Amino acid sequence: MSKPYLSLSLDMDNQWSYMKIHGEEGWESYPSYLDIFVPHVLKVLDELNLKITFFIVGQDAAFDKNHKYLRDIAEAGHDIGNHSFVHETWLHLYSREEMTAEIDKAHNIIEKVTGKSPTGFRGPGFSWSPTLLEVLADKGYVYDASTLPTVIGPLARLYYFSTSNLSKEEKEDRKEIFGKFSDGFKKLKPYLWKTKKDQQLLEIPVTTMPVFRIPFHLSYLLYISNISSHLMILYLNIAIFLCKITKTQPSFLLHPLDLIGGDQITSLAFFPGMNISSDRKVLIFKKVMKKLGKHFTLTDMNGHVESILAKGNLKNVTVPKN
Ligand SMILES: [Zn+2]
Q1: What are the pLDDT digits (tens) for 25-53?
Q2: How many CA atoms, within 13 angstroms, populate the side-chain half-sphere of residue 38?
Q3: How many domains are there within the chain?
Q4: Most buried of the four, 138, 209, 276, 302, by CB within 10 Å?
């Protein structure tokens, strides 16, 4: 019997987007570490014979200095996804016009620079909204990968109602729709969004540990390994075990700083976790990949999408009104 699939994807957050999120001055000049990080990560992935999905930020593709590195990723055979243009974690507040412009702008420049046309999207900081899903479906995107099923669902509901001007009746009306929506949002396994235009969009959540709903992507594992590498392996073993008994094919998330240390990216040496050397991070990454590879067929998001759609039998979740 063939092993279940596990997709690997890396959110290509650049130096400036880390600085922007952390409110560090100087991000406005868009400092970049792609010249250091890209050759590094491509070498590591090549050593492991892995092909993954890189979710690229449009703004990075807009700079000539980055073109070579972004092209190198595509030419090495990796898959390319859309990670927005300006990488704002408040993407969910965008109007339809702003959302459409944002997705289009990122899509066009990423396609132009890498030669690959993204079919999937991940929101910055897991930001999402019904508008986002409809814009992606309108654009013919195959999947969204912006959800992290933890406790975000109830918060989203609270937020939705607190910002709305709905009458009591309208709220009653929406309660059910939103109930279905947030149920969908809590799902660990992939499912199909259905828009009001009857379009479909596959949702592939970033997998959290089944039952416990706690993240186990590489940043977390790295954090635990700082306490004890035995504990990290135990934690990972539990996650693998729970994925297997619940028949969950994981979507496993990576970030640049999971794979490179402050010894190479000196400008971010003061960031949490950057005291760990690149060598140690790569060693841990390889250990984790070896372990995951024993239980799963490691693939990119495209491979994951194909296997999900081939299997069929997906749950449908209605996208609510905005
Ligand atoms: Zn990001």
Answers
A1: 899 999 999 999 999 999 999 999 999 99
A2: 22
A3: 1
A4: 209
